[in-house]
Design brief:
A four-stranded antiparallel β-sheet has the order 2-1-4-3, with helices on one face. By secondary structure, the protein is an alpha+beta fold. A hairpin with a 7-residue loop joins strand 3 and strand 4. It has one domain. The chain contains two helices and four strands.
Length: 101
C-alpha cells in the first residue's frame, strides 16, 4: 500500500447561495488552503473532515492500492486526482497524490 498526500488547493465561498438557501449555522468548514494530510493505507487521516473524506475516499483508496489513471487520462499526473467536498456553499478542492516509496 502507498501513502496518499491530500492537499487543500482551493476553498470557495458562495455567499449569495448561503444567503438565499442556507439556514444560519454557528460552525462552518475549518479547512484552510494549503493544509495537508497523509492517508496511510487508504485510511482517513486524523483531523480530516468526515464529509470531505467521504467525497474522496474511493479515489484515495485506489491510489493507495497502486491504481490510478482515473477516467483514462483525466489528470496530467495519472497517480493523482482533484476532488471537491460536497459542500455546495463553501466547497474545498483537494489534490490527492500517491507518494512513492
Amino acid at each position: 500500500m502507498f501513502d496518499v498526500k491530500i492537499t487543500a488547493i482551493r476553498k470557495a465561498d458562495y455567499r449569495d447561495l448561503q444567503q438565499r438557501y442556507e439556514n444560519p449555522i454557528l460552525h462552518t468548514c475549518d479547512v484552510q488552503e494549503g493544509q495537508e494530510w497523509v492517508s496511510r493505507g487508504g485510511v482517513q487521516p486524523e483531523g480530516m473532515c468526515d464529509s470531505a473524506w467521504e467525497s474522496m475516499r474511493w479515489f484515495v483508496q485506489e491510489l493507495a492500492a497502486g491504481r490510478g489513471n482515473f477516467y483514462d487520462g483525466w489528470m496530467q499526473n495519472p497517480n493523482s486526482a482533484m476532488i471537491s467536498c460536497n459542500d455546495g456553499f463553501r466547497p474545498v478542492s483537494f489534490l490527492l497524490e500517491r507518494m512513492e516509496k
